[in-house]
Write a structure and sequence with these properties.
The complex is a heterodimer.
Chain A (H helix, E strand, L loop, with lengths): L4 E7 L2 H11 L3 E6 L3 E7 L2 E7 L19
Parallel strand pairs in A: 1-4
Antiparallel strand pairs in A: 2-3, 3-4
Chain B lengths: L2 H9 L2 H9 L4 E6 L7 H6 L5 E6 L7 H7 L3 H10 L4 E4 L2 H5 L3 H15 L3 E3 H11 L4 E6 L3 H13 L3 E7 L13 H14 L5 E5 L9 H8 L3 E3 H12 L11 H5 L1
Parallel strand pairs in B: 1-2, 1-3, 3-4, 5-6, 5-7, 7-8
Helix pairs in contact in B: 5-7, 8-12, 10-11
Classes of the chains: A alpha+beta, B alpha/beta.
């Protein structure tokens, strides 16, 4: 059970990802700046940041990178 | 000063200047791209011992065209602050000072020095000095800007001697849209940008409109690298022009040691 913290998820399709987290999982969209970044409230203080995969982020190219740290 | 002289001086704005000049505290003059009062960051970092006075330009957009429209107002703004008793002046706009490159930032600074007769720095110089002070070599930057301004930031940082691993912005053009960015949101955004470049040894958060002071320490904790950001480190650089250390404990690596 995750409680609090910040998770970053690299996504290949921002619209589809936002739709998944908000419509399928029922989380609240808290921030959206076009296709550059979005954040959803995962509940109990958990923030999930959605970042698009890009050539400028080689460390995460083609895969999802998750990281959680306590607040 | 009799009653008539008092009202005459007040109406001309000279009374405030006289009071400031008589103060024992050094006075830091801040030129803001957009109208705003003395920044709360300044009062939080340096609650006593320094007086801040401000003059604002009227920047409408975070674009090269927007910067061009206000650039000629910087000199007169500096003159105004000098006449009000400033002992040093800071141009509080990162993109406003880096958008034409490092040489332009230098020329802007030199021109303002000659105009005011005072020590001068800019927000761009402040963040570069901050990055150098923490030993930055490979930098990742999170910004409020669109792609064109991010491209120019990348050029400026390279000209300043840094390897730029990544620059990611929120794509904001209208100045008022910066207010949409919440503190929690900005922390999340910056943490994610840092994670995209694990080889960076320092992070820059660029845009004076973003409230970053309270995020410096949490971001450093999460990203395990020193974080430099626009308003706090421009103030740090400006305060150092006054001959003070700039130390502001509790706000990240550099400010904690001064």
């Amino acid at each position: 059970m995750i409680s609090g913290g910040n998770i970053t998820v690299m996504v290949s399709n921002m619209d589809a990802s936002v739709g998944f987290y908000t419509e399928v999982l029922g989380m609240k969209l808290t921030n959206r700046f076009g296709d550059r970044w979005a954040a959803v409230d995962g509940g109990k203080g958990l923030n999930i940041g959605l970042h698009p995969v890009s050539p400028n982020s080689p460390a995460n190219q083609g895969r999802h990178a998750n990281r959680t740290e306590d607040r | 000063m009799n009653r008539r002289e008092f009202f005459k001086a007040s109406s001309a704005g000279l009374l405030g200047a006289a009071l400031l000049k008589s103060s024992a505290d050094p006075v830091l003059g801040l030129i803001f791209p957009v109208p705003r009062p003395v920044p709360p960051e300044g009062l939080a970092m340096y609650p006593s011992g320094i007086k801040f006075i401000t003059f604002s330009l009227d920047l409408k957009t975070l674009t090269p065209e927007g910067y061009d429209a206000v650039i000629d107002g910087i000199g007169p703004a500096g003159e105004k602050l000098a006449s009000q008793g400033a002992n040093a002046v800071v141009l509080m706009g990162t993109s406003l000072s880096f958008y034409k490159g490092a040489a332009f930032n230098e020329r802007l600074t030199e021109t303002l020095k000659k105009t005011t007769g005072l020590p001068v720095t800019t927000m761009s110089t402040g963040v570069v000095e901050g990055l150098r002070a923490v030993g930055a070599k490979r930098v990742v930057a999170a910004t409020a800007y669109d792609d064109e301004v991010n491209r120019r930031l990348r050029v400026f940082l390279k000209e300043s001697g840094f390897e730029v691993l990544g620059v990611k912005g929120l794509g904001i053009e209208k100045v008022e849209d910066v207010n949409r960015v919440t503190q929690d949101g900005l922390l999340s955004f910056c943490a994610g940008v840092r994670e995209t470049q694990p080889n960076a040894n320092a992070m820059l958060v660029s845009c004076g409109g973003l409230r970053t002071l309270e995020l410096l320490a949490p971001l450093e904790l999460r990203g395990h690298v020193p974080v430099i950001s626009s308003t706090p480190h421009a103030l740090w650089a400006g305060v150092r022009l006054l001959g003070l250390s700039g130390r502001a404990p509790g706000f990240g690596t550099l400010l904690s040691k001064g």
